[in-house]
Structures
1.
Amino acid sequence: MEWPHDPDGEQGSEGRRKYGHAVIAKKVNEDEDFPLDCDAFVSEYGDHPVRIDNKTVISVADVFEHVEEAEFADFIEFHQALGRAMRQGDLWSYEGAEEFVGTESEA
């Protein structure tokens, strides 16, 4: 896929230093962007790359296909929903994550 910027460059995953959740979270300003509308966020960043692991790059829009909420009141809500969505979409590459998170009904 043709990305608007290098997924491993400073605009993407900062030279592979950031993956998945962190790549998306750094696109929002905790003090200025909330409440955050998902459609507007995807409209602005949907074609941006998100490195999931050392082999996989997908778009922000691909991640948001698994987000159920339409809006987030604050950064914590946003961050938690992204984590749920990435796990539900099998986009969570962290080995052992199931040991640190509860069932989906706990969210």
Note: The chain has one domain: 1-92.
2.
Amino acid sequence: MANDPLSLTFAALADPTRREILARLAEGEATVNALAEPFDMSLQAISKHLKVLERAGLITRGRDAQWRPCRLEAAPLEEVDQWVDRYRDRWEERFGRLDRELHRIQNSTEGEKNHE
């Protein structure tokens, strides 16, 4: 796996469990136990997911006495958004062409039905 930040972020986001963890952290910080609660997996498995997220810079883990809260870090997600945005115009233009073609087909099909 490549070690550039964007590749690490995409690799971390590729797993649905990690995406759910990030969604939970978007609501506010949480402990490992709280993050593990909705999943049918061990704390060790959750910790492995958290390490992937941490390595990608998507979360940080603090220390407050015995409590080790995890926090979402938005910067890597902003980098993904910027990368995707470079292609947005191209996609929108292609979807526009597809939409026009579908309307043309629909109109020609309706015209044929009216002539029957």
Note: The first strand starts at residue 59 and ends at 61.
